[in-house]
Amino acid sequence: MPHTILLIQxxxxxxxxxxxxxxxxxxxxxxxxxxxxTFARNKLPENAEFTxxxxxxxxFLDKLxxxxxxxxxxxTAQYVPxxxxxxxxxxxxxxxxxxxxxxAGEKLIAGY
Length: 112
Fold this sequence. Notes:
Strand content: 25-35%
Number of strands: 6
Largest sheet: 4 strands, antiparallel
Distance between the termini: 21 Å
Number of helices: 3
Helix content: 25-40%
Mean pLDDT: 87
Shape: globular
């Protein structure tokens, strides 16, 4: 998987913009889940058990002012931009692959 740059702007203030880079797209998706988990855990009592589903991650992403990725394309030697919708689809696929019975109508639950 190609090198990926994750761009996040949590608030409308331009100084809230951050970026981080990852060796793979999968690593950047894992990072998004870890960012969400940190955010959600900060709202819970200490040592509380924590699980989450894909809808909670999507709600978190929708509250961000902006989130996008730049994924390196080796054929063109350029970075390809990917938007929030694309990121959500990739996260859905990642959660689906981790779920034991995604076709049985279960909520997709994962912990990082």
